[in-house]
Every structure is written in C-alpha cells, then in structure tokens.
Amino acid sequence: MSIDIDGFDVADAPAVGTPAENGIVASDFLRTVLTLDLSKLLATEIVEFLPKFDDQQKSSEKLVVNLMESIYLTKFFQNETTAAIEQRRQATALKQKKSLTIVMYTLHIIHIVSQCAILNGIKPINHSEVT
C-alpha cells in the first residue's frame, strides 16, 4: 500500500512537498482504512512526509503515526480474527468427527447386542406393539 500524504488536506498534513487545500480529510481516510481487508497486506509506504516543515503540533507526524497504527492494528486484528475463526472451525470439525464416531460405535454395539439376543432366542421388541 502506498500513501502519498500530499493528498491530505493541509490542515492535517502541512509537512509535505505539495500541500493540498481541500485535500483528503485524515479522519475520513483513517475510518476508511478500518473497513479494508488488510489480511494480505505485505508492505506500506508513506511518502512525501517532510518532518522539517511540520507545524508546532506536529500534525503531519501524528498523521503518519495514526496511519501506521490504523493500518497495522487493523491488519493484526483481521489476521487474529481469521486465525481464531479457523481454530474454532477446526475444533468444531473435530467435535463433530468424535460425535459421529461415538454414534457409529453405539449403533455397532446395539447391532451386536441385538444379534446376540436373537441367537439366544430373545425376540426383538416391536415398538409398535408397546403401549
């Protein structure tokens, strides 16, 4: 991801080579970053930041820090969320497999017991006749 801070409004980013009146409002951009899928982001560059031209409040420096935090905290959260979802999916699949094994084992035992009962002359229960 490449971010040229020349494009931000001069009120948010005065320390740039070409300040932009009516540029992108930093808070709007930062909110937008939170909506992006950054899970596959490999690198970020922030260009045109000239610290020696920053104002007393260090507005441009704060913007650069906020950009990096927003991008990488969002990326970290998305990756952690994706990993947590995958872990839950795997745990659920394992529980389902174990449950299916128990059901199949139980049915197998019922079948064996039924066969033993029949071999010993015990009639199976007809559930439609039970009151």
Automatic annotation (TrEMBL):
GO molecular function annotation: metal ion binding
UniProt xrefs under Pfam families: Arginase
Top-level taxon of origin: Eukaryota
Matches recorded under Gene3D superfamilies: Ureohydrolase domain
Similarity section: Belongs to the arginase family.
Protein name: EIF3_N domain-containing protein
Organism annotation: Haemonchus contortus (Barber pole worm)
